[in-house]
Amino acid sequence: MASALRRYAFINAKLRARISTLLPQENIDQMIRAKTLPESIQFLKDSPYAAAESVYSQTGDLKMAELELFKEEIGLFSEIGKYVDTEVKSFVSALSLRYEIENLKHALRLWFDQRIRGRNIASLTGYLYRKQILYPIDVDSIVNAESFEALLERLSGTPFAAVLSSCGSKLRETMSIFPCEMALDHYFYRTLLEAASTLKGRDRNIAMRMIGAEIDMQNITWIVRFLTFYNMPVDEALSYLISGGFSLGISDFKAAVQPEENQDIVSTLMGKKYPEWQAFSSQKSGGPFGRLLLVERLLSQMIDEEVSHAMSGYPFTIGIVLAYFILKQNEIQKLITVLNAKYYELPEERIKSVI
Amino acid sequence: MKQLVAVILERDVSQVTKELLRLSALDFISIKEIAGPLGNKIDQVVPKVSEARIGEIRKRIESFLAITGVYPEREKRLNVDELHAVDIDEAEKTLDRLASRVQSLKEEQKNIQQEILKLEDISRQVALFEDLSTTKTKSTSFLNIQTGSVPERNREAFSKELATLPSVELAVGNGEQKISLIITMKRDDARVNAILEKHGWTDVRLPKEVSGTKEEVLSDLDRRIADFKTRQDAITADIKRAVDEKKTELLDLWANLRMNELSSRIQSYFGKTARTYLFSGWVPADMKNTIDEALKRITEGRCYLEWNDPDDLTREVSTPVQVPVKLESPKLLSPFKMIVENYAIPEYGTINPIPFVAVAYLLMFGLMFGDAGHGLVILIIGLIGTALQKKKGKSTDLMNLISYCGVSAIVFGILFGSYFGLALFPAVWFHYHGVIAGEVQAGPVKNIYSILAITIYFGIAVISLGLILNWINRISKRDWFNLFLDKGGILGGLIYGAGVYTGFYFVAHDYKQLPDSSILLWTIGLPMLLLFAKGPIKHSMENKEHGGKPLSALDIMNFFMEWIVEVLEIFSGYLANTLSFMRVAGLGIAHVSLMMAFFQIAAMLSKNGHYTIGSFLVLLAGNALVIALEGLSAGIQSLRLNYYEFFSKYFNGTGRAYAPISLSHRDEK
């Protein structure tokens, strides 16, 4: 008890103060209602995201503003890392691996486009994040690697060399970067679960529950995409799923994709483990995409409930740290969605339906 | 406050709305709310243009003006005489045209950014080469690096055409032949080759002795990137100029939209019958005649105005009427208005707590933070903060409060003879540092217990004042029941007074003797017994008003339990409230003790009885720490004592703030 108090008392107060500075929904609504992107992004001027507005004002390039928001997200982790002890810090590092992997995937896609597909990527490399997140990776040398072997060589000293070497043959076979992206995602969740398992007692339970809910959401999204949109063989689709879900194990997915299951996969999976799905599925779904959107909404609503539980429950746990990250990430993702929707001039109702 | 109920004709609606906006004094209430059963016969007025739509366009203007750092609510004064009907479609068209201009400039800016990104990419590529003169292994990069020359007559046209592609051209070598090093993207090979062929390009091997080429290329790239960024800045300036050119038009449009928005809001409170329009609201009593005259003048007497007094209304409807409260305070006391409003709005018709809070707050702060030097620092911080806030056009209340706290600390510092922890001048009241250090042997305050006693006396005075204010409030509200039988009423006060007397008597008699039992019986026992009557009296009053059931055994049980709880609350509550003021002494003692500790550390660092640089640094850091930490603690604790020990005695925060629909955004509802 005393150690939890010592560990979380300061960070708890600090993060609660930070949470109070989250953008009110009214600001997001104003951004949605704005007629054009330049008008919409103006609302960030006096907010914690003023840097993104400033970059857009200087460059007129939304992707540069997005890069600024990405930097903002990464900054959260390094900042929180300063205020927590070693045990929690290693868990926070594992969480920030998500951004390392996102950036590495971005670099890999550019490498693939340039080397394998022969596309021009000159103006796209500017959107890569170049500072160190966790490992010293020179993204430019990755993008300009002459071959996949050279690329692995440039990642030596990081765990990603081993992760990517395992997908090399598949990459050559399928002429697609997809197997490597999946290998990186698997590595992220594996590392995150390992880091969570080193936490103790209440912290471990909270972290496992929250990560598990995210894995459930990821797996459902993937299986529906793989089978419905990519027409991937069932065995291959199942092989890409991550174990460690909160409510749904791999066996549940195997059962759901059996041919004798008459219902669609989403309803089978969700109906079995998530009683709330009944109320959700009664809404007009609008085809597989619509159902997927409903799944994402339900699961993110559940994660939100976990967040409010962490906020209102016993304060000295890892819950407050996770709650802060989730709230802040959601906010940044929401901003990126709104700004992109404004760029593509999507109607107000459509934007509201996806955020 | 006075309640106005007005009936006007349809032909006067527009002029009356305008006049009400000009007066900015009416806190509207829904006419249906006060119409009772007749409310069904009154229709809601739907403004011609929706308030929400006008608001959206107004906010759109604000977002455009924000590009140039203009905030219309600060820059534009609203003048009702300039109010005219708004053409929403035309306003939207104006803004769409501006948006389209801004977007096309933004697109241009984005295209330049793409060029910058390409050049930055080339720059990163070039940086990977060790030496450009020996690197022609084209497969290692997506760049093409070539050296050669074109005939002199083609040079200018060649350079111009090459510059249309992402490329670098650099003059290298120092011989008679002008050699160019060009770096292009491989993807542009076809176009580059066409340009080379067209202008008669001949490959020339770059001599090995040519050095510094890479640096020159990088510097050329930097220059070009800088040029592009300058162009981007110019576009940013163009965008600002585009908005700035429209500034006056936008500000006028904004002002008119804002006034139309407020007019729509005013009319949304109107009700109408077949021939007439009705509205109602509250105004400060001193505005009654002004509004009465203005409405009669505007309608040329074609109106019916009814003015109601809150007390009359309460009597008529026999239930309390929610009257808005306009918290009045001199400008000097506006920081304390902020403190009161932050807690709650007092009930209408009760004493304005602002002056009492001002005195209590500053006394508490001074007692906890009595040091003239530290007070001076706080005063300076407050004054600088006030000036900065004024410059930004923001509220100065908090900074003014800090300045007042500084003045209070200076006054108490002089009383306690404390100047940055030093006794530079003799204390006017008592030497706080001397008392804590045990150096004072004579005078009214000799030890810590005396300081604690002062704060207890102070607490008793504050609580007693709170009780007296509560009694005045109850008398003015004619709330006789609570005046006598509430725990903050006369009986509660009597018990508190007797408790205080008993406490002092007990201490004065060496903790061995209580006052005479007859005194205790009359001052504590009898009031306690009388309090038992509270439940039955309340029950019979309710029965009288609403009719009800006869008294049951359960009711009697309830009376008994409520009485026990209330008596316990009086004893424990008042005791805790009074002792709570000991924190004033606690913080004051902590302030002095911390300063003494820093002086001791400074002395330990001194050499031959003289302070060293280290000593001075310790004193500097110590003073800064004490000012920051103790200043914050004293401010918070003063607030806490006001909110929980003082307000709880007399402050009924059930009021509603007076919020007229006004031209001033500060009064906005």
Describe the structure.
The complex is a heterodimer of chains A (355) and B (669). Chain A has 355 residues and is mainly alpha-helical. Chain A is built from 19 helices and no strands. The longest helix of chain A has 31 residues, at 86-116. Chain A starts with a helix and ends with a helix. The mean pLDDT of chain A is 85. Chain B is of the alpha+beta class and 669 residues long. Chain B is 62% helix and 8% strand. Chain B has 24 helices and twelve strands. Chain B has helices spanning 13-23, 31-35, 51-67, 72-75, 88-128, 155-162, 189-198, 213-245, 247-268, 288-298, 310-317, 334-343, 354-368, 372-392, 397-416, 432-437, 448-476, 480-485, 490-508, 517-531, 534-546, 553-580, 582-604, 613-650, and strands at residues 2-9, 27-29, 43-44, 143-149, 167-172, 179-185, 202-203, 271-272, 276-283, 303-308, 324-325, 656-657. In chain B, helix 3 runs parallel beside helix 5. In chain B, 33% of the residues are buried. Chain A binds chain B through residues 30, 33-39, 42-43, 45, 57-61, 64, 114, 120, 122-127, 140-141, 144, 146, and chain B through 56, 59-60, 63-64, 66-67, 95-96, 99, 102-103, 105-110, 112-118, 120-122, 124-125, 128, 139-142, 166, 185, 187, 232-233, 235-236.
Give the arrangement of secondary structure elements.
The complex is a heterodimer of chains A (355) and B (669).
Chain A lengths: L1 H18 L5 H9 L3 H5 L8 H10 L2 H21 L3 H31 L22 H5 L4 H7 L4 H7 L2 H7 L3 H20 L3 H29 L4 H6 L10 H7 L8 H9 L3 H5 L5 H26 L6 H25 L4 H7 L1
Helix pairs in contact in A: 1-18, 4-5, 5-6, 5-18, 6-11, 8-9, 11-12, 12-17, 17-18
Chain B lengths: L1 E8 L3 H11 L3 E3 L1 H5 L7 E2 L6 H17 L4 H4 L12 H41 L14 E7 L5 H8 L4 E6 L6 E7 L3 H10 L3 E2 L9 H33 L1 H22 L2 E2 L3 E8 L4 H11 L4 E6 L1 H8 L6 E2 L8 H10 L10 H15 L3 H21 L4 H20 L15 H6 L10 H29 L3 H6 L4 H19 L8 H15 L2 H13 L6 H28 L1 H23 L8 H38 L5 E2 L12
Parallel strand pairs in B: 11-12
Antiparallel strand pairs in B: 1-9, 1-10, 2-9, 3-8, 4-6, 4-7, 5-6, 8-9
